[in-house]
Design goal:
With 221 residues, the chain is of the alpha/beta class. It has a single domain, classed as Rossmann fold. Helices cover 35% and strands 20% of the residues. This is Alpha/beta hydrolase. Keywords: Hydrolase. One of its GO terms (molecular function) is hydrolase activity.
Amino acid sequence: MPEVMFAGPDGRLEGRYHHSNEPNAPLALVLHPHPLHGGTMNNRITYALYRTFENMGFSVMRYNSRGVGRSQGRFDGGIGEISDAAAALDWMQMINPNASGLWIAGYSFGAFVGMQLLMRRPEITGWISIAPPAAHYDFGFLAPCPCGGLMIAGGKDDMAPEPAIHKLVDKLNTQKGVAVDYRVYPEADHIFAKQADKITAAVEDHVTRAMSQQHMALAAD
């Protein structure tokens, strides 16, 4: 998994990038938890997401947002971090101009950043949102949400309480053409210490089915 450095809006950003052997492979961008709470691209769940997409044949990147690891700049409360994610996406798209799809996968604060990016980039074809901090951030910007995705919550998560995530899912599912695949692990807290394998399996299942449906829709056209 080669180390890459690319230009961000506030200085160079550090990432890890896997380039698929498949021609025109889909892309995936993986976003880490809150930088001020120890979130980095080497976070266990972030790394698991990265490897899952790699194993599915994607070209995939995880990176450190500004001020984390060897990435320049400093934490910007979310606004700058959304710009960092857009820069990471730009870099991947420059390397892969004919990619067959684009997925965003975020965990915790990374889920908030990912969903913000979703609203700004219409080319995104799917998303994964793990423990989105729906009780701490307003996700009302997802109106309308451009496509369905996978949302995962922990039943014992105090930092991203399941009831708040459930409420967000219900709201999204009322939107026309949007279906959220919602999975709850009752024993999981915010760290998902014993659920990494379940998350990996859920992501693989969801992405495989969603891409199959997208291909069928394209064939029907």
